[in-house]
Amino acid sequence: MKQLLVLVALLAAAFGLGQNHNSSRQAQAQPPAQDPPCGAIDNSGVGAENTTGFPQALQKPEDRADVLDLLLAKIWFYYLDPGFEGKDWEKVSAQYKAQALQARSERAYYDAMRGLVNELDGVFLSTTQLEAQSKLSQARAGLGGIGTLISSTDPRDGLTVRWVLPNSPAARAGIKARDRILAVNGRDCPSTDRIRGPEGSTLTLRVKSPGQPPRDVTVQRARVNYPETILEARRLEANPQVGYLWVSELGKEQMPAALEKALTELTSGTPLKGLVLDLRGTGGSGMRTMRYLLGHFISGVKYGFEGPEFYERRNIPARKPDLSQIPLVVLVDRGTTGSANMSAAILQTRPNTTLVGEKTGGGNRYYQGHELPDGSVFFIAQGRFVLPGEKPMESEQVTPNVLIGQDWLEFAEADDPYIKAALEQLK
């Protein structure tokens, strides 16, 4: 569940929380004494406005207390497990509330709130809207990035490039999908904060491509405009009669129209004999997008959610182009979460469909969003997923039909063991 917003949070790697105006010279003159441990919060690329003080909505201590009290009240009332997973929730919530109210900065305040909700495996906090506003403001102030979509969040393994925006600084520097960024300006434990910086400035990345030794790449930051949706639909070079569809995440409202357009173009011309749907690293919480994606491959069935105070059933509508009869292979891995995870579970019930990969990251719950007075949103699990045929999805993870033990990101596409297994299934 914690991975649901992984792709949404990192998609803005081209913008950033960085020094603005004339502060880059100060940042160079006063580097941090030492790097923070991998996985720790890295403030080295974050402007002072983000680490000290509070935004207008949180200026008064009583305002910060009101946000916390509302968050706690809704968790008490709505949470799926009334036993709070066996935890002394009154004690836990009091501990984090005290920590949040003692915070002296916006970041410390939200860190405490995230610590609170992370105690439960069915609640998470999103400040995406607030962060997006901050990133947009700072982008206008002249901050830029390199134009990549990152799908790995463990800095000890480097940052994995899942997609590169055409004609972006990263593309011009020769960075490609599946590359790993191992260091930024000679510093190990890379982070997207370190990649962002003043527009026009340069940085040196230590990059490793599959099967190749690491190399240093110099990139000039620039302002980057991402498309509303990121997906890829094409025919595989190894077998042009097999289509390939990758969807970055299922949370975008524009995704259904983009999917219809991409699949229509993919299926024009020579008929396909099979299709590979790549949900590796795909997350998101978009139920509408999930329904429309599934509608191209399966229709006339229902799925739903059930909880102590929640019951819902939804139809999967048929969508054009109709690919319900085409042999299908779905690629999944531990990065397949949320609505992508549930999509894989439903498609596994479809005839002539094979799941290939490793056990998914999980996700079998319905989350209801609740907006807080500061503009942030928290999501709370209110129901568990029910598969077509009224079969409850007992496990959060989906186990594929064909298990692959290798890390596909270590391979170029031509040698990708997942795609090779998929083509074998589609013979």
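[next item in queue]
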Amino acid sequence: MKWKEITVGQVTIHFIKTEKFRTVYTLITLSEELTEESLTKRIVLADMLGFATEKYPNRRSVMLAREDLYSASLLCNTRRNGKYHEICISLTALSDKYTEEGNLENTFAFLNEVLFHPLIQEGSFNEEILDQVKELNKKDIIGLKEDKNSYSTYRLLQEMAPNSKLSVSPSGTLENLEAIDGKNLATYYQNVMKNDNVDVYIVGDIDEEKVTHLVETYLPFKTKRAAYYDAFTETLEEREEARVIREKDAISQAKLVIGCNIEDMSSFDLNFSLTLYTLILGGTPDSKFFKNIREKYSLCYYITASSLKLNHTMLFKAGIDSKNFDETLEHIRHEMKEMELGHFTDTDIESAKQTYLTMLKSITDSQKSMAYSVLLMKSLDLGTIEERRENILKVTKEQIMEVAKKIKINTIYLLEEASHEESGV
């Protein structure tokens, strides 16, 4: 995977050259700092951009336009990236090598239509289409409460980091959704096009000079690009004693989510030593959590560890019977202490390193993965795939032990089973 970055006007182009695929994958990200007020609008706006344009005024005409590009795949969605929120527009289309000359230019012309010519008439998005999109988003917002895994994580983050970017609802809020109309969304669209940071990722067997010309021609953004891109959120305040929140719901399996502070550490330790710590502790079926808490003591149905590095946060998640809450928590604390004391083997370290190397290798199996790998590389200062491969092999047991001392439990959240009387059944 060969990667190169250039800046054209206010747009940064990331060329990811590979001959592995017959298609060219283009990802355009528009980024701004995440706020609760703007998140719902950005989710709705992304959906509207993919729904209709001036030239293609309904979903069917958009679909037919994609078919004319040899069934090109268009995806408009959003994602969080640390303190930023990103609108992501991606298009996968056959390379000119496998179609007539000009298909790549036609795909850029289509992206121009999607991004620069949405269906806005008399200063307003089409209200009928907007109502359809809002109804879909309403279901997502309401559905968060029904997805107990996602809901319990959201509630943990609300309690752990209130009034922070971590605590913002992932799907937006009904109140903010109801406030959106065609006119204020059109105004917000203009704001995005003027002020968001724009990056373009191109993955495939591409000619850099040709693609640069296409970006200049069809993606003429005039945004106010930030001079420095720092996606890290503020470090969370530590607690002297972990806070415990228990809530009840009509569920058959309790959801335990534990939020930990990741204390300041070097970029190397954050990207590599912490990764191995996470894998050894709870990131694989060979992890200490899985082998001991799940298999040896049969205290949970599942248990995992993961990290939100840009948010200085680590999460432990488990499905348990609420009667096992205290014992499960005791064993989690014990396994964390074992990591600090170095009670894990060279075989554990080697297995975790091989898992990481396998994950690295799989990145090049997908154009989307390759693009997002470069995006993450920019956010976390990860280095290229080859540099990551070299760095993970350098991590020592002592470095993992030092990292273990910098993981501190902040908040413990349990969504537990309600009785029939409590649940109204």
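[queue empty]
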